[in-house]
Automatic annotation (TrEMBL):
Region (Disordered) location: 62-84
CDD domains per record: SRPBCC_CalC_Aha1-like_6 (cd08899)
Higher taxonomy: Bacteria, Pseudomonadati, Pseudomonadota, Alphaproteobacteria, Hyphomonadales
Family as reported in the entry's similarity comment: Belongs to the AHA1 family.
Organism for this UniProt entry: Henriciella pelagia
InterPro entries in the cross-refs: ASHA1/2-like_C (IPR013538), START-like_dom_sf (IPR023393)
Residue span(s) of domain Activator of Hsp90 ATPase homologue 1/2-like C-terminal: 29-149
One Pfam family named in its UniProt record: AHSA1
Name of the protein this chain belongs to: ATPase
Length: 175
């Protein structure tokens, strides 16, 4: 059974089309940076896709949703492989990664705080309420996988967690 998420783990809307979500990760930010930028490591918690460290570089993120949670299958409409064409906006290791996501951007900022790294994700350009619900749910679930990967702890069943969080975000995200 997936435990109830803590209040600070939820995405918050900082503007009508912008969400912010944070996670604490063990270790140095250079290691976390690798999980953001290395396709093989990123595939374990989000999506594969080779990205060059150059603003303007176009790349494709590819989700293999059935691999995220082999013990709990993806719900109808979410299984299989999905891709998103993107472009690097900022590549400033190990502090800031920003890339285009549809009509918006996704920005990861990493701050070293002692033996931990604070990851702050900002996602802009989310025009619809259903988009804000789904993207908030998705980032929450994916970042929890990232925490498990970096920590070396057991992963929750991704799709079980996703479906539970989606119900919570349906209530949290304003109309």
């Amino acid at each position: 059974m997936t435990p109830q998420p803590s209040e600070e783990s939820f995405a918050t809307l900082t503007a009508p089309t912008t969400l912010l979500i944070k996670r604490w990760l063990p270790g140095k930010r250079e290691r976390v940076w690798d999980y953001l930028t290395d396709s093989d490591l990123r595939r374990k918690w989000l999506a594969a896709g080779d990205m060059a460290p150059t603003p303007g570089h176009k790349f494709t993120l590819t989700w293999r949703n059935d691999d995220l949670s082999p013990d709990a299958p993806a719900p109808e409409g979410k299984s299989g492989e999905h891709s998103l064409d993107s472009e690097i906006v900022t590549f400033d290791p190990p502090e800031k990664l920003e890339f285009r996501w549809g009509n918006g951007t996704v920005t990861f900022k990493l701050e070293q705080k002692g033996e931990k790294t604070l990851l702050t994700l900002t996602h802009t350009g989310i025009e619809t309420r259903s988009g804000r619900v789904g993207i908030s749910t998705g980032w929450h679930s994916h970042l929890d996988l990232l925490v498990s990967e970096v920590s070396g702890t057991e992963r929750d069943a991704f799709w079980t967690k996703y479906e539970a969080l989606n119900k919570i975000y349906e209530e949290r995200v304003p109309a």
